[in-house]
Design a protein that fits this description.
Blueprint lengths: L16 H4 L9 E8 L5 E9 L15 E5 L17 H8 L2 E5 L3 E6 L4 E4 L17 H16 L5 E6 L1 H12 L5 E7 L16 E6 L18 H4 L9 H4 L3 H11 L7 E4 L3 E6 L10 E6 L34 H8 L6
Parallel strand pairs: 3-4, 3-7, 7-8, 8-9, 9-12
Antiparallel strand pairs: 1-2, 2-4, 5-6, 10-11, 11-12
Length: 344
């Protein structure tokens, strides 16, 4: 039996540009710099990635393209967003004619695990895998990104938010901190509320996507499942307090969403083979917004669908561990459908 490598960062290694350079996920994208106000009153230059559909380099002022903001979770394996190419959100944007912005979390630790990886994580009080760094708040960063996007690209009003794992936790913080109406709808994959975000603000149409065998965030809550394997014994050592994950209940999070929006009545449940779709109709919510939950069968903690390599490559599997054919759940396609952007 071999020891599990410690996935905590090496405190002797300094976080600097030589070890933490952020790269474009897609050579067709643009990396744009914004100035973000720090807590001491100074500013810091931060970058975000933008994908304009079908090779566009600029956007006419009267085009008002829809904009999707994609927030990845904790990453310790790549110096770029895993959402753009690995999850093929850029491909979907080219197909359906919308733009995507990828805010990029700062490095939090270096020298992480095998290969001295750099860990990136969202930083805001009550959010993230590590203790909050009080010198900056990523809410201020995203606020600056959104203002910059509005000034440069003249997008459609209201941002579509797509979130994976801890990106969904951070999204809940943004819902509370940014002005009402900033986000027109949300698509949240395998996420829960870890911190102090509180009940969700009502009135945002939201679709939750979960794996029914998620070992990191078991649907009914409780400690990580033994099948979490290297996640529990390796990657999750990144968390300074693993009780935060053990005390979560994703099903309760969805119930909080229903309560906040005043849902009454009976949901519509449809078995679609590889997943179950539960719809809470807008007509039965006090706020008049729909809420949906897709539970992917025999699936774990991933952004589901065919992808280009990396940790996000997993699709839903049948009981024998074999990928089913075309009916496999494609989170990127379902995201575009939920936002009303997919052109079939």
């Amino acid at each position: 039996m071999t020891d599990t490598p410690d996935f905590r960062g090496d405190p002797s290694k300094k976080i600097d540009d030589s070890t933490t350079k952020t790269l474009l996920a897609d050579s067709h994208d643009q990396m744009i710099t914004v100035n973000v106000k720090l807590k001491n009153g100074t500013t810091e230059a931060r970058q975000y990635e933008v994908h304009l559909p079908n090779g566009m380099q600029s956007v006419p002022a009267d085009s008002h393209l829809p904009v999707v903001m994609a927030l990845d979770g904790v990453t310790a394996n790549k110096p770029y967003t895993g959402m753009a190419v690995d999850n093929r959100i850029n491909d979907e944007a080219d197909r359906d004619g919308f733009m995507v912005i990828y805010p990029l979390p700062k490095p939090r630790e270096v020298g992480v695990g095998i290969g001295d990886k750099t860990m990136r994580d969202w930083n805001s009080p009550g959010v993230g895998a590590l203790s909050t760094d009080p010198t900056y708040d990523d809410v201020d960063y995203v606020r600056a990104v959104i203002a910059d996007v509005k000034g440069k690209f003249h997008p459609q009003n209201g941002i579509h938010a797509a979130d994976m794992s801890l990106g969904g936790e951070f999204q809940r913080k943004l819902d509370h901190e940014l002005p009402s109406g900033t986000f027109r709808d949300e698509f949240v994959v395998n996420s829960t509320v870890f911190g102090t975000e509180g009940a969700p603000p009502p009135g945002i149409p939201t679709k939750f996507v979960r794996g029914d065998n998620d070992p990191i965030l078991p649907p009914a809550g409780g400690p990580m499942h033994p099948n979490a394997g290297w996640f529990k014994n390796g990657f999750m050592r990144l968390f300074e307090d693993t009780d935060r994950t053990d005390n979560q209940n994703p099903n309760a999070m969805i119930q909080d969403e229903l309560t906040a929006n005043g849902f009454t009545g009976k949901p519509q449940v449809v078995d679609k083979g590889t997943y179950t779709e539960t719809t809470y109709p807008a007509a039965q919510t006090r706020t008049g917004v729909p809420i949906e939950v897709d539970v992917v069968k025999n699936a774990g903690h991933f952004w589901f669908g065919r992808a280009r390599g990396g940790i996000h490559e997993t699709v839903a599997t049948d009981s024998n561990g074999v990928n089913p054919p075309a009916e496999a759940y494609d989170a990127t396609r379902e995201m575009a459908k939920w936002f009303g952007l997919r052109k079939d």
